[in-house]
Amino acid sequence: MRVDVVTIFPDYLAALDLSLVGKARRAGLLDLRVHDLRDWTSDRHRTVDDTPFGGGAGMVMRPDVWGRALDDVMGAGGGDGGPAAHLVVPTPSGEVFTQRHAEALAAEEHLVVACGRYEGIDARVVEHYRATGHRVSELSIGDYVLNGGEVAALVMIEAVGRLLPGVVGNPESLVEESHGAAGLLEYPVYTKPPAWEGLDVPDVLLSGHHARIERWRRDRALARTAQRRPDMVAALDPGALDRHDVDVLAGLGWVVDGGRLRRLEDGPEQGPGEGTSGTVAE
Ligand code: 6GU
Q1: Which uninterrupted H or E stretch holds 247?
Q2: Is the CB of 152 under 6 A from ligand 1?
Protein backbone atom coordinates (compact mmCIF):
# COMPACT_ATOMS: atom_id res chain seq x y z
CA MET A 1 0.00 0.00 0.00
CA ARG A 2 1.11 3.54 -0.70
CA VAL A 3 0.28 6.33 1.77
CA ASP A 4 1.13 9.99 1.20
CA VAL A 5 0.73 12.43 4.10
CA VAL A 6 0.66 16.18 3.46
CA THR A 7 1.23 18.40 6.52
CA ILE A 8 2.93 21.60 7.63
CA PHE A 9 4.61 19.55 10.39
CA PRO A 10 6.33 16.60 8.67
CA ASP A 11 8.34 15.90 11.86
CA TYR A 12 5.10 14.94 13.63
CA LEU A 13 4.99 11.83 11.46
CA ALA A 14 8.50 10.70 12.47
CA ALA A 15 6.90 8.20 14.87
CA LEU A 16 5.91 6.15 11.82
CA ASP A 17 9.56 5.06 11.52
CA LEU A 18 9.08 3.09 14.76
CA SER A 19 7.50 -0.15 15.85
CA LEU A 20 5.32 -2.26 13.60
CA VAL A 21 4.57 0.43 11.04
CA GLY A 22 8.28 1.25 10.71
CA LYS A 23 8.99 -2.44 10.22
CA ALA A 24 6.27 -2.66 7.56
CA ARG A 25 7.89 0.24 5.73
CA ARG A 26 11.35 -1.33 5.84
CA ALA A 27 9.86 -4.64 4.65
CA GLY A 28 8.33 -2.86 1.65
CA LEU A 29 4.74 -3.62 2.73
CA LEU A 30 3.96 0.06 3.24
CA ASP A 31 5.32 2.83 1.01
CA LEU A 32 4.77 5.87 3.25
CA ARG A 33 5.82 9.34 2.10
CA VAL A 34 5.46 12.52 4.15
CA HIS A 35 5.31 15.88 2.33
CA ASP A 36 5.60 19.47 3.56
CA LEU A 37 2.57 21.46 2.34
CA ARG A 38 4.75 24.58 2.21
CA ASP A 39 6.63 23.05 -0.73
CA TRP A 40 3.55 24.03 -2.80
CA THR A 41 3.49 27.70 -1.72
CA SER A 42 4.81 30.38 -4.06
CA ASP A 43 5.24 33.44 -1.84
CA ARG A 44 8.27 34.49 0.16
CA HIS A 45 6.56 33.68 3.47
CA ARG A 46 5.34 30.25 2.31
CA THR A 47 1.79 31.16 3.39
CA VAL A 48 -0.72 28.32 3.73
CA ASP A 49 -3.64 30.11 5.44
CA ASP A 50 -5.77 33.25 5.45
CA THR A 51 -8.65 34.84 7.34
CA PRO A 52 -12.12 33.25 7.04
CA PHE A 53 -14.69 34.80 4.68
CA GLY A 54 -17.72 35.75 6.76
CA GLY A 55 -15.52 36.61 9.72
CA GLY A 56 -14.82 34.72 12.90
CA ALA A 57 -11.86 33.50 14.84
CA GLY A 58 -8.81 31.74 13.51
CA MET A 59 -7.38 31.06 10.09
CA VAL A 60 -8.41 28.78 7.23
CA MET A 61 -6.05 26.85 4.99
CA ARG A 62 -6.04 28.08 1.37
CA PRO A 63 -7.55 25.82 -1.31
CA ASP A 64 -5.05 26.84 -4.01
CA VAL A 65 -2.06 25.62 -2.01
CA TRP A 66 -3.84 22.37 -1.08
CA GLY A 67 -4.96 21.91 -4.70
CA ARG A 68 -1.42 22.08 -6.05
CA ALA A 69 -0.17 19.68 -3.37
CA LEU A 70 -2.96 17.15 -3.81
CA ASP A 71 -2.86 17.24 -7.62
CA ASP A 72 0.80 16.25 -7.37
CA VAL A 73 0.44 13.44 -4.82
CA MET A 74 -3.00 12.06 -5.79
CA GLY A 75 -2.34 11.46 -9.47
CA ALA A 76 -5.08 11.80 -12.07
CA GLY A 77 -7.83 9.82 -10.34
CA GLY A 78 -6.88 6.51 -11.92
CA GLY A 79 -6.51 8.00 -15.37
CA ASP A 80 -2.73 8.01 -14.99
CA GLY A 81 -2.58 4.23 -14.89
CA GLY A 82 -2.19 4.15 -11.11
CA PRO A 83 -5.12 3.42 -8.80
CA ALA A 84 -7.40 6.33 -7.89
CA ALA A 85 -6.18 7.61 -4.55
CA HIS A 86 -8.59 7.69 -1.61
CA LEU A 87 -8.31 11.07 0.11
CA VAL A 88 -8.52 10.99 3.91
CA VAL A 89 -9.07 14.28 5.69
CA PRO A 90 -8.76 14.08 9.49
CA THR A 91 -11.19 16.59 10.99
CA PRO A 92 -13.14 16.84 14.25
CA SER A 93 -16.26 17.38 12.11
CA GLY A 94 -15.86 14.03 10.32
CA GLU A 95 -17.50 10.66 10.89
CA VAL A 96 -15.97 8.89 13.88
CA PHE A 97 -13.14 6.60 12.72
CA THR A 98 -13.76 2.97 13.71
CA GLN A 99 -12.23 -0.45 13.08
CA ARG A 100 -14.67 -0.73 10.13
CA HIS A 101 -13.08 2.36 8.52
CA ALA A 102 -9.61 0.91 9.21
CA GLU A 103 -10.61 -2.35 7.49
CA ALA A 104 -12.02 -0.55 4.45
CA LEU A 105 -8.98 1.72 4.11
CA ALA A 106 -6.61 -1.27 4.46
CA ALA A 107 -8.10 -2.63 1.22
CA GLU A 108 -7.05 0.47 -0.75
CA GLU A 109 -3.91 0.69 -2.86
CA HIS A 110 -3.27 4.40 -2.35
CA LEU A 111 -4.28 6.71 0.51
CA VAL A 112 -3.53 10.43 0.66
CA VAL A 113 -3.92 11.99 4.11
CA ALA A 114 -4.41 15.77 4.16
CA CYS A 115 -3.62 17.14 7.63
CA GLY A 116 -5.26 20.49 8.35
CA ARG A 117 -4.29 22.95 11.06
CA TYR A 118 -5.93 26.15 12.31
CA GLU A 119 -9.72 26.19 11.76
CA GLY A 120 -9.45 23.66 8.94
CA ILE A 121 -9.11 23.50 5.17
CA ASP A 122 -11.26 25.60 2.78
CA ALA A 123 -14.36 23.42 2.16
CA ARG A 124 -13.94 23.59 -1.63
CA VAL A 125 -10.95 21.24 -1.45
CA VAL A 126 -13.04 18.23 -0.39
CA GLU A 127 -15.80 19.31 -2.80
CA HIS A 128 -13.37 19.53 -5.73
CA TYR A 129 -11.78 16.12 -5.22
CA ARG A 130 -15.20 14.46 -4.81
CA ALA A 131 -16.36 16.20 -8.01
CA THR A 132 -13.32 14.86 -9.87
CA GLY A 133 -14.10 11.26 -9.01
CA HIS A 134 -11.96 10.69 -5.93
CA ARG A 135 -13.25 8.98 -2.86
CA VAL A 136 -12.93 11.33 0.11
CA SER A 137 -13.34 10.39 3.78
CA GLU A 138 -13.53 13.11 6.42
CA LEU A 139 -12.79 11.30 9.68
CA SER A 140 -12.55 12.26 13.36
CA ILE A 141 -10.79 10.12 15.97
CA GLY A 142 -13.21 11.04 18.75
CA ASP A 143 -15.18 13.71 20.51
CA TYR A 144 -12.42 16.03 21.63
CA VAL A 145 -10.43 18.75 19.91
CA LEU A 146 -6.82 18.50 18.74
CA ASN A 147 -4.79 21.32 17.23
CA GLY A 148 -4.47 19.62 13.87
CA GLY A 149 -4.88 16.41 11.93
CA GLU A 150 -1.37 15.03 12.45
CA VAL A 151 -1.99 12.98 15.59
CA ALA A 152 -5.23 11.68 14.06
CA ALA A 153 -3.27 10.71 10.93
CA LEU A 154 -0.83 8.75 13.14
CA VAL A 155 -3.75 6.94 14.76
CA MET A 156 -5.38 6.07 11.44
CA ILE A 157 -2.15 4.97 9.74
CA GLU A 158 -1.26 2.70 12.65
CA ALA A 159 -4.77 1.21 12.73
CA VAL A 160 -4.72 0.63 8.95
CA GLY A 161 -1.06 -0.40 8.72
CA ARG A 162 -1.37 -3.28 11.17
CA LEU A 163 -4.15 -4.79 9.03
CA LEU A 164 -1.96 -5.03 5.92
CA PRO A 165 -1.05 -8.64 5.09
CA GLY A 166 2.25 -9.59 6.72
CA VAL A 167 2.49 -6.63 9.13
CA VAL A 168 1.24 -8.38 12.28
CA GLY A 169 3.35 -11.54 12.68
CA ASN A 170 0.53 -13.76 13.90
CA PRO A 171 -2.75 -12.92 12.09
CA GLU A 172 -4.58 -14.88 14.84
CA SER A 173 -3.95 -11.92 17.14
CA LEU A 174 -6.19 -9.81 14.89
CA VAL A 175 -9.10 -12.22 15.36
CA GLU A 176 -10.24 -11.96 18.98
CA GLU A 177 -9.23 -8.43 19.80
CA SER A 178 -11.56 -5.65 20.88
CA HIS A 179 -13.68 -4.08 18.15
CA GLY A 180 -13.45 -7.17 16.01
CA ALA A 181 -16.47 -8.71 14.31
CA ALA A 182 -17.83 -10.17 17.59
CA GLY A 183 -18.82 -6.64 18.67
CA LEU A 184 -17.41 -7.16 22.17
CA LEU A 185 -14.50 -5.72 24.10
CA GLU A 186 -11.64 -8.13 24.65
CA TYR A 187 -11.56 -10.34 27.75
CA PRO A 188 -8.89 -9.61 30.42
CA VAL A 189 -5.52 -11.30 29.92
CA TYR A 190 -2.91 -12.62 32.38
CA THR A 191 0.62 -14.02 32.32
CA LYS A 192 3.23 -15.21 34.80
CA PRO A 193 3.61 -15.06 37.74
CA PRO A 194 0.32 -16.76 38.70
CA ALA A 195 0.33 -14.92 42.06
CA TRP A 196 1.33 -11.27 42.30
CA GLU A 197 0.69 -8.68 45.04
CA GLY A 198 -1.87 -11.04 46.58
CA LEU A 199 -3.77 -11.30 43.30
CA ASP A 200 -4.23 -14.72 41.70
CA VAL A 201 -4.78 -15.51 38.05
CA PRO A 202 -8.29 -17.04 37.76
CA ASP A 203 -8.03 -20.83 38.32
CA VAL A 204 -9.85 -21.67 35.10
CA LEU A 205 -7.00 -20.20 33.03
CA LEU A 206 -4.55 -22.62 34.69
CA SER A 207 -6.88 -25.60 34.27
CA GLY A 208 -5.95 -26.55 30.72
CA HIS A 209 -9.66 -27.02 30.09
CA HIS A 210 -9.98 -25.42 26.69
CA ALA A 211 -13.79 -25.26 26.43
CA ARG A 212 -14.14 -23.83 29.97
CA ILE A 213 -11.46 -21.24 29.27
CA GLU A 214 -13.25 -20.14 26.12
CA ARG A 215 -16.55 -19.86 27.95
CA TRP A 216 -14.96 -17.91 30.81
CA ARG A 217 -13.35 -15.50 28.36
CA ARG A 218 -16.62 -14.94 26.53
CA ASP A 219 -18.43 -14.30 29.83
CA ARG A 220 -15.79 -11.76 30.87
CA ALA A 221 -15.99 -10.08 27.47
CA LEU A 222 -19.78 -9.82 27.79
CA ALA A 223 -19.57 -8.46 31.36
CA ARG A 224 -16.87 -5.96 30.49
CA THR A 225 -18.76 -4.75 27.43
CA ALA A 226 -22.02 -4.40 29.38
CA GLN A 227 -20.26 -2.39 32.07
CA ARG A 228 -18.16 -0.11 29.86
CA ARG A 229 -19.89 0.03 26.49
CA PRO A 230 -23.66 -0.47 26.76
CA ASP A 231 -23.89 1.03 23.24
CA MET A 232 -21.99 -2.03 21.94
CA VAL A 233 -24.30 -4.45 23.76
CA ALA A 234 -27.34 -2.69 22.29
CA ALA A 235 -25.80 -3.13 18.81
CA LEU A 236 -25.24 -6.93 19.18
CA ASP A 237 -27.18 -9.24 16.89
CA PRO A 238 -29.20 -11.48 19.26
CA GLY A 239 -29.06 -14.17 16.55
CA ALA A 240 -25.29 -14.39 17.08
CA LEU A 241 -25.71 -15.18 20.80
CA ASP A 242 -25.89 -18.69 22.25
CA ARG A 243 -28.17 -19.63 25.15
CA HIS A 244 -25.44 -19.11 27.71
CA ASP A 245 -24.71 -15.61 26.29
CA VAL A 246 -28.39 -14.74 26.70
CA ASP A 247 -28.31 -15.97 30.32
CA VAL A 248 -25.15 -14.02 31.12
CA LEU A 249 -26.61 -10.87 29.57
CA ALA A 250 -29.86 -11.39 31.50
CA GLY A 251 -27.78 -11.44 34.69
CA LEU A 252 -26.33 -8.11 33.60
CA GLY A 253 -29.80 -6.66 33.03
CA TRP A 254 -30.16 -7.10 29.26
CA VAL A 255 -33.07 -8.87 27.55
CA VAL A 256 -33.78 -9.84 23.96
CA ASP A 257 -36.85 -7.91 22.87
CA GLY A 258 -38.17 -7.71 19.31
CA GLY A 259 -34.91 -8.88 17.73
CA ARG A 260 -32.83 -6.37 19.71
CA LEU A 261 -31.08 -6.27 23.04
CA ARG A 262 -32.64 -3.88 25.51
CA ARG A 263 -31.47 -2.84 28.97
CA LEU A 264 -34.08 -3.50 31.65
CA GLU A 265 -34.79 -0.14 33.28
CA ASP A 266 -35.21 -1.72 36.68
CA GLY A 267 -32.71 -4.47 36.09
CA PRO A 268 -30.12 -5.44 38.67
CA GLU A 269 -27.18 -3.14 39.18
CA GLN A 270 -24.39 -3.79 36.68
CA GLY A 271 -22.64 -6.81 38.16
CA PRO A 272 -19.38 -6.57 40.04
CA GLY A 273 -17.65 -6.79 36.67
CA GLU A 274 -14.19 -8.21 36.89
CA GLY A 275 -12.26 -9.26 39.92
CA THR A 276 -14.94 -11.32 41.58
CA SER A 277 -14.38 -13.96 44.26
CA GLY A 278 -10.72 -13.75 45.04
CA THR A 279 -9.51 -13.37 41.47
CA VAL A 280 -7.96 -10.29 40.03
CA ALA A 281 -9.31 -6.77 40.04
CA GLU A 282 -8.16 -4.56 37.20
CL1 6GU B 1 -9.14 14.27 12.97
N2 6GU B 1 -8.60 16.64 14.01
C3 6GU B 1 -8.64 17.53 14.99
N4 6GU B 1 -8.08 18.74 14.82
N5 6GU B 1 -9.23 17.30 16.16
C6 6GU B 1 -9.77 16.10 16.32
C7 6GU B 1 -9.76 15.12 15.34
C8 6GU B 1 -9.16 15.42 14.18
N9 6GU B 1 -10.40 14.02 15.80
C10 6GU B 1 -10.79 14.34 17.02
N11 6GU B 1 -10.42 15.59 17.35
Answers
A1: helix 243-251
A2: yes
Close Cβ partners of 57 (under 8 Å, ≥ 6 residues apart): 119
Q: How far is the CA of 242 from the centre of ligand 1 (A)?
A: 39
Spacing, Cα 98 to ligand 1 middle (Å): 14
Q: Are the CB atoms for 119 and 52 separated by under 8 Å?
A: yes
Indicate which residue's Cα is closest to atom 7 of ligand 1: 92
212-262 per-position pLDDT tens digit: 999 999 999 999 999 999 999 999 999 999 999 999 999 999 999 999 999
Q: What pLDDT digit, counting tens, does each position of 163-209 carry? A: 999 898 777 777 667 787 789 999 999 999 999 999 999 999 999 99
| Ligand 1 within 6 A of CB of 144 | yes
How far are the Cα atoms of 4, 13, 97, 140 from residue 1, in angstroms, in the given order? 10, 17, 19, 22
| pTM score, whole prediction | 0.90
